[in-house]
Automatic annotation (TrEMBL):
Transmembrane domains' residue ranges: none
InterPro entries in the record: Cell_wall_metabolism_enzyme, Dup_hybrid_motif, M23ase_b-sheet_dom
Keywords assigned: Signal
SUPFAM superfamilies on file: Duplicated hybrid motif
Source organism per UniProt: Shewanella algae
CDD domains documented for this protein: M23_peptidase (cd12797)
GO molecular function, a single term: metalloendopeptidase activity
Entry keyword Acyltransferase: no
M23ase beta-sheet core domain ranges (all copies): 51-137
Secretion signal span: 1-20
Protein's recorded name: M23 family metallopeptidase
Length: 169
């Protein structure tokens, strides 16, 4: 009986997380579609990862990087390739990955939309390149209809195109 209630509670939690409304904003302050290349998502070939699983939003070093939706910060720190990074969980069970930051903002676990995460930079494997934010979105709920025959196309069931995600609705 307890297992059944636990399972029902888990299903309700998953369903509720998927219902939280999203009205995302561009994660770089005052950036717009002219600040990234619309075809850079899934660009091939791309370094050791094979394909580019996000977009690079170019801006001046020190420009504010902000939460595109309300989110929960899961990790903040430094990774070898991403440099200074933030990983956060947003509505719809989507992980948002922000990389190559110049600085990180220590402002808690819950981040309302528009909260400062850090600033644009060139950390990690972007050192010496024009400052930008690498922005990726990973769905924890697979979307198999997005799979195609592109290199690593099966991973598109999880990696979402930020260009489409940020498009006006």
């Amino acid at each position: 009986m307890k297992k059944r209630y636990g399972f029902i509670l888990l299903l309700l939690l998953i369903f509720a997380g998927a219902l939280i409304p999203e009205n995302p904003q561009v994660p770089v302050h005052q950036a717009s579609a002219k600040d990234w290349h619309k075809d850079s998502f899934w660009y091939y070939p791309w370094g050791t990862s094979g394909v580019h699983k996000g977009i690079d939003i170019f801006a001046a070093r020190g420009t504010q990087v902000q939460a595109p939706t309300p989110m929960l910060r899961l990790y903040q720190g430094e990774w070898r390739l991403g440099g200074k990074v933030v990983l956060a969980l947003g509505p719809g069970w989507k992980l948002h990955y922000f990389a190559h930051l110049d600085s990180l903002e220590p402002n808690g676990f819950y981040l309302p939309q528009g909260s400062k995460l850090g600033t644009v930079g060139d950390s990690g494997n972007a050192k010496g390149k024009p400052p930008h934010l690498h922005y990726s979105i990973v769905s924890l709920m697979p979307m198999p209809w997005l799979i195609d025959d592109a290199p690593q196309g099966y991973k598109k069931a999880f990696y979402l195109n930020p260009v489409t995600y940020l498009a006006p609705r």
